[in-house]
Design a protein that fits this description.
By secondary structure, the protein is α/β, with parallel strands linked by helices. It contains eight helices and seven strands, in the order H-H-E-H-E-H-E-E-H-E-H-E-H-H-E. The protein has a single domain, classed as 3-Layer(aba) Sandwich (Rossmann fold), CATH 3.40.50.150. A seven-stranded mixed sheet has the order 3-2-1-4-5-7-6, with helices on both faces. Helix 2 crosses helix 3 and helix 5 packs parallel to helix 6.
Amino acid sequence: MTDHLRYAWQMLNGYRAKIETRIFAEREHDIAGYLDRRNPIPALDLGNGNLRPQYSLLRAAGYRVYGIDLANRPQRSLTKIAYIFARALYRWKLHLPIADIDRTLVCANASDLPFPDNTFGLVTSVAAFEHFLDVPAVVAELRRVLRPGGLVYACIHLFTCPSGGHNVRISEVPLRSLPRGVDPWDHLRKRRLPFHVPLNEWRQDQYLRLFARHFEILKHYCATREGEEFLTSDIMAELSAYSRDELTCGAYVIVARKMP
């Protein structure tokens, strides 16, 4: 079974929906106690993607959510039609209404958000930050559009983990096996495999320092580990510029608050 067929099967059997539901629950746990949930919170899903699972889950939970992504550009193509059916399947597996209400989806660049200052109480981003090529501009924009006391929840697929090059396995989360003939951390070593998506190659400490310049850091931690089984002493010696923590952290979470 090819990787894409395996991914499609995971969509059908609900595995992908379980991952997204877990991410939603982890975010709700992390932000509990910091936001007043008595009234609907205006939220921004930064980099909602073509499938929009977090956007849909946030709407279902009562947030007044906007989604922003260049993928929101209106166009007619076979790919767009395929995504309509894929989103319906996703929503069914997430136990949400099949109808895909998308009136609050915006096509724009994350480094130039089309919203007034102090608009949102929550900005959330899942597996998007690693693709932003001007990370400082994006973080500055988040600070601008967040209300005082508002939160940022960023879950970042770190470039330094085994799957950080986005070119080995899309069907394993976390990564547990490699295609035949592919070296672990190829993207940090010989780079025999090309990158197929934009990647900024930022490291964990770079993200943390940048967020700390703009926000109060409430918590940060590694949410998903991968690659321990690949990490030999020879690879550790070759990649000595990186810590074991960096090399095995697949999903890094930062929760931060905008101070008055």
